[in-house]
UniProtKB/TrEMBL annotation:
InterPro entries: Mpv17_PMP22 (IPR007248). Its main location: membrane. It is found in: Membrane. The chain crosses the membrane at residues 25-41, 86-108, 120-137, 176-195. One of its GO terms (cellular component) is membrane. It is a multi-pass membrane protein. This is Uncharacterized protein. Keywords: Membrane, Transmembrane, Transmembrane helix. It comes from the Eukaryota. Belongs to the peroxisomal membrane protein PXMP2/4 family.
Length: 196
């Protein structure tokens, strides 16, 4: 009987399974990422005052990278390619998210409108950008695969992001919206890695 591959299209790719003794590089990566994230979080306000986008890229890229490391630790495998891919995605996503949050906060006065626009245009566009980024990275730009991955991403996305968006626009000060997104993205990526 053939073994089925239950990975999501976004988590597929080449992982190298190393013997436990060689797998220590993932532990070093996690330790270093925790130190860097600690530095970013403790200095976030100063980074933010210097540049909102720099602060966002630092927090977003390293939290995404950290979630990839936890995923690889869970799988007991290591892929530098996946580390670099998710670090780069964290940078891109941070810039897009910061820009999008700014548009919502400064263009709309009504929280209901912010929430609805975020859950329609924001989620649909954000997931589409990720799917294209992933397909480009994996050199798999075919319509059927893009459509399948996009619909899968949307289905999973709508399980968590409406609640996050609701909390963001109805209960949080605007300075905390982006950091909350980074934190939830970190947790969400770990969950996706474990269930896929």
């Amino acid at each position: 009987m053939e073994k089925q591959d239950h990975q999501l299209p976004i988590t597929k790719g080449s992982y190298t399974n190393y013997p436990k003794s060689k797998n220590t590089s993932i532990y070093y990566a996690i330790f270093l990422e925790i130190l860097i994230l600690y530095g970013i979080v403790t200095n976030y306000q100063q980074l933010y005052e210097h540049s909102e986008y720099l602060a966002g890229v630092c927090l977003g890229s390293f939290s995404t990278l950290f979630s990839q490391s936890i995923s690889q630790l869970y799988r007991q495998s290591f892929s530098f390619d996946k580390h670099f891919k998710f670090f780069l995605w964290g940078c891109i996503n941070s810039l897009i998210s910061n820009f999008w949050i700014g548009i919502l906060l400064h263009s709309l006065d009504n929280n209901i409108h912010r929430f609805l626009l975020d859950q329609t245009v924001g989620v649909l566009t954000g997931q589409l950008i990720f799917v294209f980024f992933n397909a480009f990275w994996e050199s798999s730009l075919n319509y059927a695969s893009l459509k399948s991955t996009y619909l899968t991403c949307l289905r999973y996305s709508y399980m968590i992001w409406p609640l996050v968006s609701f909390l963001s626009f109805f209960h949080l000060h605007e300075d905390y919206i982006f950091p909350l997104n980074c934190f939830v993205t970190l947790i969400w990526n770990i969950i996706l890695a474990m269930i896929s």
